[in-house]
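Hi P.,

Sorry for the delay on this. The queue was packed all week, but I finally got your sequence through. Input first:
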Amino acid sequence: METNENFLTPTLPAAGERRAPWIGWLVGSIAAVLLLVIIVRLTSGGAKAAPPPKAVQVTTVLAQKGDMPVNLSGLGTVVPTDAVTLRTRVDGQIVKISFKEGQMVRKGDLLVQIDPRPYQVQLLQAEGQIAKDQSVLRNARMDLDRIRSLYNQKIVSQQQLDTQSALVDQYEAAVKADSAAVESAKLNLTYSRITAPISGRVGLRLVDQGNMVKASDTNGLVTLTPVAPINVLFTVPADAIQSVMASGKAPAVEVYDRDMDRKLAKGTLLAVDNQVDTATGTLRIKAQFDNKDGALFPNQFVNARLLVDTLRGVVLVPSATLQRGPAGSFVYVVKGDSTVEMRPVEVLATEGDVTAIKKGVAAGEKLVVTGLDKLRPGSKVAEEGQGAPKAAK
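Then the structure:
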């Protein structure tokens, strides 16, 4: 039996095959070293301090000490001191219109002339009748004197004297009635001239020249409204009654346009209504203005502001600096290291864009106006600008 020498003799690996494990081990070691270096570098880099947070860009303002007026505001309407609708008091045809629409007229100026001729005729008739009755009266008085003389001589009876005396009284009454008719005719003649009862501005005429008008007409001829002085009627909340009453004699009232952008006039309190409107819970107030420049016009809508008090020596800040939180109002105060502090405040009053602070902020402290939504207590800030609170309007 033959034996297989190749089977019994062990087979040795080739030279290249013996080097392969050493090469793999070397490559793995190098990779492990590189990975370790990367990890160390990353770890050492992460251990460095994080860069400081970016400063928040804000606008600041200085709290100031000063005086602030306290006003009550309300929507008002400009009303004339008097409003007159001119109407005729006699019937007739309009023969003359002596004004231009929108013209300023003075008291006593002729505005409309109604045909006076019918009333001139009535006056002549009344004067003629009174002359006739006066003549009859004079004759009756002379007869009374004669009868009285005869009665004293016992020639006529008492009845004749009484009859003549009564006749004189009758004629005297007729003369009085005639005098009334004369005055009535004169009055109608005067009414045919329609004059301005007050000074003011006439409106658009309602009847043209040549038309017939009657005393029973309700539309009138033209309206007349004075514009200087002029009144403003506005309302304030009923809760402010005591403030109005305690505001002193003739407090100042200012009126602005509907957008509160432009002041139109300044006047004084004229009157306060005697009761509160239960439907609206407001009190009506009337103020008077000189209106020499004509800035106020009848039936114009305005915003009125009644000065009821003045806060002296209070800390003033812009209303935009105030924030609202669960605990109440607060502001952000910029400290010396350019960080902010959240400071609770107690508001005394607000007037327009300015707020008076009772407690929490001192005059001269720097407050944040814009950029508030990005702030937290302790935030770093960079100031873009600085100003001061504007005075209340």
